[in-house]
Amino acid sequence: MTERKAQLTVEGHDKPIDLPIYPGTLGPDVVDVRGLIKSGFLTYDPGFMSTASCESDITYINGGEGVLLYRGYPIEQLAEHSSFLETCYLLLHGELPSAGERLEFENTIRYHTMVDQGVHRFFNGFPRNAHPMSMLVSVVGALSAFYHDELDISDPTQRTLVAQRIIGKMPTLAAMCYKHGIGQPFMYPRNALSFPENFLHMMFGTPCEENAVSPVLARAIDLIFLLHADHEQNASTSTVRLAGSTGANPYSCFAAGVAALWGPAHGGANEAVLKMLGEIGTESRIDEFIRRAKDPNDPYRLMGFGHRVYKNFDPRAKVMREVCNDVLEDVGEAADNDLFRIARRLEQIALEDDYFINRKLYPNVDFYSGIILKALGIPTSMFTVIFAMGRTPGWMAHWDEMVGGAYRIGRPRQLYRGPGMRDYPVK
Ligand code: CMC
What is the pLDDT of residue 334? Predict the structure, then answer.
């Protein structure tokens, strides 16, 4: 087969520059611009609007049509038939597990839920009112200190062990961040429980009494994890890849991913949604906030609306919207309160208002996950932590894919606009 080529014609340059084109299994063809530097040019793409930073087999998104596939499986089907842990297996191994493989994987993850007692002592140094994400960034990075003999990233067995450890320990660390903030003792994991039940046990249980975990609640949380499990080259995953491309140890790379996720334009949006709903306060103030969001001279944005890739309803948001309705129905009384009424009204306005329609600004996954988590009694400051727990297998799968293949250090270039060379003024 002849290789397709793009030709770049540049004014003042004698011949066109040939650039190879590669087809993907799905999605747009990709023009390989790596050779461009030899002709003295760089490409310019701040925000990576048109740049494929790597080759990947893991996740596919068609933002225009609202499609999200993990290893080829539509997210809606996984949400209906799979579980978070099975989805972790799928992301990491490329295929769904057999019944035996699934059981073995679940047991292995259980075996890795405890953290070293030394990690407990880290929390003594954090102020009581520290944001849970600030603690999570630190303790995830600190895990490398406990496993320094098993950080050979060229060894696939050690990489598998890293995956089992990080997926198993994230709920334990996340619950510790919460318990520290409210001054309650840390709860040890209970390995007889399922993954989501165990997390809820460590969050809401106390040593004084058994905490019965509602299966409805456990399924809702599991679904939130599953829907967040991967999202191709998003900001935090790209951060993990970039950090990993230097050969840094995986726990430091995941800590970098947690840090990137924290921003309100990324994983921090679910927390920002609740803050926004609180700020709006009553239905009568909604119009004022909509006006601000639409004003080109006001930087204010409605949190939980819009997405870089989805210019259609985010398929995760569709599933989440249904879960949100079920959960609100289930919690009954809470569904009547102002916050949820404001959320429903905002959703309605955004779906009907020309500003949002023309810009294809649909409610995103964080709009609904924030509302669900609030209804489930999860404190707002923990929302992004929950997102981080969900995204862990995605970070892991991408890091493993990169480190397990041929890769180079990620080193972007720039369009320099500073002063030209000048002499230091000697006095
Ligand atoms: N409210 C009001 N206007 C908006 C919003 C919003 N939430 N988002 C985008 N716009 C407008 C923006 O002002 C621009 O208008 P104009 O064309 O008139 O200048 C137009 O829509 C395009 O916006 P953009 O900045 O080019 O879009 P982007 O792809 O760079 O940004 C985004 C995507 C998600 C950062 C942005 O929509 C946003 O800030 N949303 C609110 C934060 C949020 O909910 N983030 C969670 C994303 S989902 C979780 C994840 O995957 O990380």
Answer: 54
Q: How far apart are CA 7 and CA 2, in angstroms?
A: 15
Q: Is the CB of 71 under 6 A from ligand 1?
A: no
pLDDT band per the 50, 70, 90 thresholds, residue 332: low
Distance in Å, CA 298 to ligand 1 centroid: 13
Tokens of 309: 């890739």
Q: Is the CB of 306 under 6 A from ligand 1?
A: yes
pLDDT tens, position by position, 239-293: 999 999 999 999 999 999 999 999 988 888 888 888 899 999 998 999 999 999 9
- Decide: helix, strand or coil at residue 97: coil
Give the side-chain half-sphere CA count within 13 A for 383: 28
Q: Is 274 in the pocket of ligand 1 (CB under 6 A)?
A: no
Task: Please tell me if the CB atom of residue 305 comes closer than 6 angstroms to any atom of ligand 1.
Answer: yes
Q: Which of 359, 366, 383 for mutating ligand 1's site (highest number of atoms within 8 Å of CB)?
A: 359
Q: How many A from CA of 301 to the centre of ligand 1?
A: 7
DSSP 334: G
Q: Token match 């598998």: residue?
A: 160
Query: What is the pLDDT at residue 343?
Result: 86
Residue 115 is encoded by which pair of tokens?
A: 């953290």
Q: Is 301 a pocket residue for ligand 1 (Cβ < 6 Å)?
A: yes
CA-nearest residue for atom 28, ligand 1, is 308
Yes or no: say if 198 and 218 are a contact pair by the CB < 8 Å rule.
no
Distance of CA 261 from the midpoint of ligand 1 (Å)? 16
- The two three-digit tokens of residue 47, written as one number: 């925000």
Rounded distance between C-alpha atoms, residue 396 and residue 184, angstroms:
31
Contact between 225 and 100 under an 8 Å Cβ cutoff? The reply is: no
Q: How many CB atoms neighbour CB 23 within 10 A?
A: 10
pLDDT averaged over every residue in the chain:
93
Read off the pLDDT of each residue in 76-85 and give the average, rounded to a whole number.
Answer: 97
C-alpha span between 232 and 34 (Å, rounded): 21
Whether the Cβ atoms of residue 271 and residue 383 lie closer than 8 Å to each other: yes
Rounded to the nearest whole angstrom, what is the distance from the C-alpha of residue 44 to the centroid of ligand 1? 21
Is residue 266 lining ligand 1, measured as CB closer than 6 Å? yes
Which region among 139-153, 277-291, 337-351 has the lowest average model confidence (pLDDT)? 337-351
pLDDT-derived band of residue 32, with 50, 70 and 90 as boundaries? very high
List residues with catalytic annotation. 266, 307, 366
